Input
Amino acid sequence: MNRTNGAPRATGVRPPGTHPTGVNLLALRSHNTALVLDLLRSAGPDGISRLELAERTRLTPQAVSKITARLREEGLAAEAGHRASTGGKPRTVLRLVPEAGHAVGVHLDRDELRAVLADLDGTVVGERRVPLDLGAGAEAVLGAVVREAEALGRAAGASLLGVGVALPGPLDHTHGVLHRVTGFPEWDGFPLRDALAGRLGVPVVVDKDTNAAALGLAVAGERGSFAYLHLGTGLGAGLVLGGTVHRGARTGAGEFGHQVIQLDGPPCPCGNRGCVEALCLAAMERGDVDEAARVLGESAANLAGLLDIDLVLLGGRTIAAGPEPFVRGVAAVLADRARREGAREGAVPVRLAAGGARGVAEGAAHLLLGPVFGRGDG
Output
């Protein structure tokens, strides 16, 4: 008999090779379906048999047969051939049908909008990019998001699961309400999620750009605990701790750019002085990339020392335009800090994040795709 220790809990991105076990309770049917879908996705085009699904989920073969039959009726699963068995007839192998579902991911930056259409595998099958002024007012910004999302949604048709929107913080991820977005205080208290859901007629999830990018990286295979540092029109961090995106009790974690590292330093649009973001962007404006990398490295070293993370990943269009000085500069500071602290395992490694300029938009799409596969909201 299958047993459970309570209701399933959203646990974020799972470690490689592990899957939570299912329970044969009608109330948790959607949970069990998500477990099966996740295994179908992990198996890829080669597919997986019903017996293997039952073994890995610890569901009964009868429960798996009912779930897979329903998934086939809904077009989410299909036969992928047959596999020889040890006695008896060959086993039918099933696979996920990626084109059966899609999500739109939107990256709202301070000066542009980038949107992607991703299938159930997370593969980008459509992309749009337009200039945007985040300070142009709610009507103009919402109109732009609706136009681009609907243009991509038409390609998805009835298979559109919803829209994920990622933008600079701070914001309330749980309720989809913006706070005082750095440089744009007029957004404070705006219910972006509900406003967009009302216009689009589909579910909408709102998160910080750095959290979305970090989620996308974790889903794509980055493991353990890492920090994604994003330098573009602003500076922020997405944190993945123990395989789960860390948002904090009030979903405000990751305001990395507004740690003060120079008392009485230059003013920052957030209202503080001497913030990492202000120092980094000022160095870039002077053309001093090495100094910008050094400042980023010092703050990254503070973060690594505080959280004992495994890896630092660098992204954002400023870094993507010339990554080598940033990777080298941040790594040098971390190496020096590790040497002075006597770390036995050496410095925390630093490298360029995968995903490039559309990494945030792809991560925003995973805000919708994640729950389909039992991964909570990231």
Remarks:
- The radius of gyration is 22 Å.
- The longest strand covers residues 112-119.
